[in-house]
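## retry 2 of 3
previous attempt timed out at serialization; input unchanged, resubmitting
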Amino acid sequence: MTDVDGVLERVASRAASEVDHLPARASVDQIAEAEKRLGFALHPLLARLYGEVADGGFGPDYRLFPLLGPGKSAVGEYLACREASTSEETPAEPGEIVLEHPRWPEGMLPVMTWGCAMYAAIDCSDKDGQVLLFDPNSYAGGPGEGCWFVDSPSLREWLETWLAGTGWFEMGADERDDFAEPQPWQQAAARLSAG
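## retry succeeded, writing output
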């Protein structure tokens, strides 16, 4: 058994103990359909979570979105965020472009809401599946570099903090000596301009 297999087993066990009726697992066809609509592959660990644990409905606080379907879904939220990030207000002056919403990078899949328009998002283009916090609540225009924060350097580590109860999002986390809040995402400017 690999380290990832062990994490998946512990996630499945915790999910089953916390949720009375977990959604069915995502099928191979559902994962393929999601990737087709997104235009990129899911991070391998994320695909395994959906295919081996459940199609959302587990995880920290508000829990992971389902991949597809009616209502909020990871694919639906990604497509909506990408579309909104390309909308523009009427230019105030000739040649000036004012964005109504922060830009949303390609390959950044929102998997969960934190409430208040904030998301946990997995960078599916990153080999480790870096987890970012998107917080647009202080958005003041432009591409929105200040809306993006590194929550965890990898999806595996993010899951480990949830399993251990040590994430910044846990009740009373800010009172611990080892509390570390998400830090600004250093790649934001480059990734937002590329998208």
